[in-house]
Amino acid sequence: MHESIMEQLWQTSHLQGGNLAYVEELFETYLTDPNAVPEEWRSYFDKLPSVDGNQGPDVAHSSIREQFEHISRNQRALSTGGVPASATSDADKKQIRVLQLINAFRFRGHQQAQLDPLGVLVRPPVEDLSLSFHELSEADRDLEFQTGSLNFGAETMKLGDIADGLRETYCSSIGAEYMHVVDTRIKRWFQRRMEPVRSRPEYEADTRRHLLERLTAAEGLEKYLGSRYPGVKRFGLEGGESLIPCLDELIQRAGSYGAKEIVLGMAHRGRLNVLVNTLGKNPKELFDEFEGKKLADFGSGDVKYHQGFSSNVMTTGGEVHLALAFNPSHLEIVSPVVEGSVRARQTRRDDTDGSQVLPIIMHGDAAFAGQGVVMETFQMSQTRGYGVGGTIHIVINNQVGFTTSKQEDARSTEYCTDVAKMVQAPILHVNADDPEAVLFASQMAMDYRNEFKNDVVIDLVCYRRRGHNEADEPSATQPIMYDKIRKLKTTRELYANRLIEAGVISADEAKQMELEYRDALDEGEHVVKSLVKEPNTELYVDWAPYLGHEWTAKCKTSVVLKTVQRLGKKLSQVPEGFAVQRQVSKIIDDRSKMTAGALPINWGYGEVMAYATLLNEGHPIRLTGQDVGRGTFSHRHAVLHNQKDGSTHVALQQLSEKQPYFDIYDSLLSEEAVMAFEYGYSTTTPNALIVWEAQFGDFANGAQVVIDQFLTSGEHKWGRLCGLTLLLPHGYEGQGPEHSSARMERFLQLCAEHNIQVCVPTTPAQVFHMLRRQVKRPLRKPLVAITPKSLLRHKEAISSLDDLTEGTFQTVLPEIEASDPKKVTRMILCSGKVYYDLLEKKKTDEREDVAIVRLEQLYPFPADDLDEILAQHTKLKHVVWCQEEPMNQGAWYCSQHHMRNALTRLNPKLYLQYAGREASAAPACGHTSVHIEEQKKLVNDAFEI
């Protein structure tokens, strides 16, 4: 093991030649006492990749095994007339108890750590950490014991030194939880990082001065804003200023590992501070926002503590692009958005292990414990479709959520971070009033993420010096806490005094730091020294081609026949020896016939061919949802499963050697986090088709926050374009309230200013052109597609190859064999599946006086296209809107004024009537017989009222 580490050292050019002996001596010293080597070398050795989880010479035997061997030797000695076992049994027992004591501190030391800067948190004693619990006494403190796997640099030590060292390591300013992790390599990794330095590395004067400078910046901005804009909401960082040096170290250390991009997410608290002091936003821009000046030239804009930002900073490893995600007030919902953005950037860079792009997400303690999307985001973290190689989570632990501070009210877990244990993420609780401990925790967190590519949590235990916001009076609900806070020196003042006492800095130098920072703010200068003023534009995504287009922008979505035939043949090819399930085999055979023109094409063919042609034209595709490989209603079968060995075949990934990626993943059973992830992905990938499919359309309810706060309003609030497509199965087949409606009324109610598209395609050709239009058109708007269930195999819901090779998506669709307009006196307007019920009624009753017109796009409302069809029918007397949904749902309330306006333009005397279900609290009835009666009535009403 030792040799392999040294081999890694010799492979670096600056360590060759005459330096070898010196470096080897340094490394040997580092293994026994990391504080005895210079900080620069310690940092270098800390970041060396481990081999089998070990970073030092292997321990030949575990301590417990040594004890058994020792006891065994005693027993052998007894059997051969040697020293009786009883003579050493007490010593053996004590030795084992010492090893149990060591283990207890590793497991439970965090419960006695000095984490709370306020001293308010009183924790009960942990009996496991006392000598007496292990049947040891103060009298034993001078006795020598073997240290086993303890990394204190000596094989034997006095019990007193062992106990004191353990308390320093695990019960000071850092409380580390890592023993819940199953992987022994990880447990050893933390022990070898923390125990040799007793969790308190000795930092050099320059490092400590830099820490003070970062704290000065963090405190300085808050003081400046507080005096210049008193009482104005800013959700300041006072009490949690250590976040700024924490972020600074994480970013610089990530850059030293070769990271190129970091995506950050956070809620409100400290956001303005991070924008100015970490990302380098010009303070003058922030001041303009405080003074109410309109800076955005689009939409509504948003409050300043929701704003995102991006910049480039320089690190020892090169330029790093930072992107802070925009977020609403729904706290933790930004977390999966960040993960999606990171995954997209990793895909673009072909960064398969997450070493070039990584997420850092900041949370509030109450939200981290209380918001279910946190659990969903952790659950995604190690899956194929959503993993990003580990996330660094920072909990800004105010120890209060708005006005809720009592732990029994705020959560049921010991820590707000306990949810992270579900993925065995290590958790580093750290006292935010100890900046050097925060620095050490930050270094460990980044090194851990780089080494193991898993999530890790820094629990930054701090406090809110102000209330929930600056207009809030916190002592009304937390009098004891805020009495202590008023008397408490700031983190910066405490650390400055510490450095002054240590002779690292003078009082005048500390004061000068404050004045220089304030002067920079007065001048409106950038205050991030590592900011790159002329950033490398290759680190950015160019959205310019997608700006400034009307929703009516034209594009070609038809595809030449030879291309369809060639791709159709590819899609029907199955690897030799691949055993396809019987029903699936028939679907593939039928698709071969469709390609040959021997069968009309069905929905599955139209959809899959849309994907194939887009891939053929160089557009990547990502398709996720709970059953997308097969399709909930068994129509897609984009992923085939070998019936013999369970292997899979995805024909859409085998179209050509140079095709872009086609990613398809059956997701975890989540709507909120998964849709947010795909939103984040789509805001970073303009040239791709990104699709999320609901198992049933109304399951999107679980992601309503994403729909409301991101999908429908993100462009208007933040100028963030997004082309995410939602496929929401919808249709009234008598399957009850939760399996009928995609709740299209909710989407339509959110429609304004051409923010999204709501389409209800009813033919395979329409879904083909709709999906292709989503990418081929030069604008990026979210698409909400209300897709069918029973129509997937309906004998009338078919198209021809000609429909794919000609035309485009039609927002308004007449019947294929329409009545003579001169004979038509009644027009039925509708959307979706009900069209086929109406068509059957018309054919059965031979109603040549009726025309049925489908609105395939409900928003933006296609007024011009509807006018064009209406103009052909000059003898209309009755116009009816027919829908399956109850009157208070569906398109009726949100769209009727558009249709009435169209009728007025044609003939002011025409009145739009309604045929559909009565208003209902539930989306649909749950009784088949009632459903059939209702459906029959609404169809009849459309022809008679």
Automatic annotation (TrEMBL):
SUPFAM superfamilies: Thiamin diphosphate-binding fold (THDP-binding). SMART domains: Transket_pyr. Pfam families: 2-oxogl_dehyd_N (PF16078), E1_dh (PF00676), OxoGdeHyase_C (PF16870), Transket_pyr (PF02779). One of its GO terms (molecular function) is thiamine pyrophosphate binding. InterPro entries: 2-oxogl_dehyd_N, 2oxoglutarate_DH_E1, DH_E1, KGD_C_sf, ODO-1/KGD_C, THDP-binding, Transketolase-like_Pyr-bd. GO terms for cellular component: cytosol; oxoglutarate dehydrogenase complex. Keywords: Glycolysis, Oxidoreductase, Thiamine pyrophosphate. CDD domains: TPP_E1_OGDC_like. Residues 601-794 form the Transketolase-like pyrimidine-binding domain. It catalyses: N(6)-[(R)-lipoyl]-L-lysyl-[protein] + 2-oxoglutarate + H(+) = N(6)-[(R)-S(8)-succinyldihydrolipoyl]-L-lysyl-[protein] + CO2. The keyword Cytoplasm does not apply. It is an enzyme of class 1 (oxidoreductase). Its EC number is 1.2.4.2. GO terms for biological process: glycolytic process; tricarboxylic acid cycle. The keyword Methyltransferase does not apply. Its cofactor is thiamine diphosphate. Belongs to the alpha-ketoglutarate dehydrogenase family. E1 component of the 2-oxoglutarate dehydrogenase (OGDH) complex which catalyzes the decarboxylation of 2-oxoglutarate, the first step in the conversion of 2-oxoglutarate to succinyl-CoA and CO(2). Homodimer. Part of the 2-oxoglutarate dehydrogenase (OGDH) complex composed of E1 (2-oxoglutarate dehydrogenase), E2 (dihydrolipoamide succinyltransferase) and E3 (dihydrolipoamide dehydrogenase); the complex contains multiple copies of the three enzymatic components (E1, E2 and E3). This is 2-oxoglutarate dehydrogenase E1 component. It comes from Marinobacter mobilis. The lineage of its organism: Bacteria, Pseudomonadati, Pseudomonadota, Gammaproteobacteria, Pseudomonadales.
